[in-house]
Amino acid sequence: MNPVQRPLHALVLRLLAMFLLQAMMMLVKLGGVHGIPLVETMFWRQAIPTALILMWLASRGQLHRLRTERLGAHARRSVMGLTGMFLTLGAVRLLPLSEATVLGFTAPVFATVLALVLLRERVGAYRATAVALGFAGILIIAGPDRAAMPLPGFLVGIGGAFMIALISIQLRDLGRTEEALSVVFYFSGFSAIALALTLPWTAHAHDLAGWAILGAIGLTGLFGQIALTAALRYGSVSSVIVMDYSSFVWATMWGWLVFAQLPPTSTWAGAPLVIGAGLIIVYREHRLSLQKPVESVS
Predict the structure, then answer these.
(1) pTM for the full model?
(2) Residue 202's pLDDT is what?
(3) What is the 3-state secondary structure of the chain?
């Protein structure tokens, strides 16, 4: 049975998720400054939520909430999610926070292109304009200045956005039958097992500050992921994804406060085009969702 739709509730959850996940991104970048390897960071990012969810449910006698008949779907989500996480967090390590965040905003553009190429969907004037604006914004942000936007970081960030486009669709599907806590648990658990195999080669000794960073990454990642998944349970992708653009505000804030970094001129010039492209797609998807019930009745 589909959950009851609560649009305002979903928007608030998505906004909270963006704040928490940008805090996590800042901590991941800070971990890089402290010399913590990315793969080890990803392990603790996944292992801590897995352990906390298990302990919390066990203390309440509610382990039955993890029962699922869609283990295969959770496994596929974990493979895609782990790939997307590696690219997204890798971009944060390679680029300033604001630039890495703006590249992530190209996910709706990639979702439109995927719908055209893979699903043979018709792309009208709205979405064609959005794709053109989005790619124009990407070109401006990339710019000729490799110091502000090194090519490896740019490519990794674009790859992460592509994976986000795929994962958002998958999360919406899982949200129809699985509660948010279950989706987060299986993603974290499957990923932690895979990443644990790399620890003999990637794990390092850490001081108190290093462990505090890793612990905070796990906590912000856990609650951010729960809020993100719950938002898709109570609202459609097209209705809540508009909140994702608040990430640029949080990323700019963290970059300035923690790393004394502000976006260069090319980012300020290109970001409105990328954000505008996403908003056009959101508007179009919202209009289509309003038309579908009318068409069904007809």
Answers:
(1) 0.78
(2) 87
(3) CCCCCCHHHHHHHHHHHHHHHHHHHHHHHHHHHCCCCHHHHHHHHHHHHHHHHHHHHHHCCCHHHHCCCCHHHHHHHHHHHHHHHHHHHHHHHHCCHHHHHHHHCCHHHHHHHHHHHCCCCCCCHHHHHHHHHHHHHHHHHHCCCCCCCCHHHHHHHHHHHHHHHHHHHHHHHHHCCCCHHHHHHHHHHHHHHHHHCCHHHHCCCCCHHHHHHHHHHHHHHHHHHHHHHHHHHHCCHHHHHHHHHHHHHHHHHHHHHHHCCCCCHHHHHHHHHHHHHHHHHHHHHHHHHHHHHHHHHC
